[in-house]
Amino acid sequence: MKDTAVSRITRYLKDPLYKNAIFLIATHAAFSLVGLVFWIVATRWYTDSEVGTATALISAVLLLQTFSRLGLDIGLIRFLPDAGDKRRMINTCLTLVGVFSIVLAAIFILGLDFWSPGLTSLQDSLGYSALFVLSTGVTSLDWLFRQSIFVAYRATQLSLLTQVVAALRLPFLLVLTGVGTYGIFASWSLGLGASLLGGIILLLRLQPSYRPVPVVDRRSVQELFRFSAGNYVAESFRELPGFILPLLILNMLTSDMSAYFYMPWTLATTVFMVSYAIGFSLLAEVSNEPDRIGTDVGRAVRFVFLLMTPVILVLVLLGDRILLVFGREYSENGFGLLRILAFSGVPLAVNSLYVSVKRIQKQVRPVMLVYAAVAAITIGLSCALIDEHGLIGVGIAWVSANAVVAVAILLVTIGRRRKASGFRTSP
Question: Longest C-alpha distance within the chain, in Å?
Answer without folding.
Answer: 79
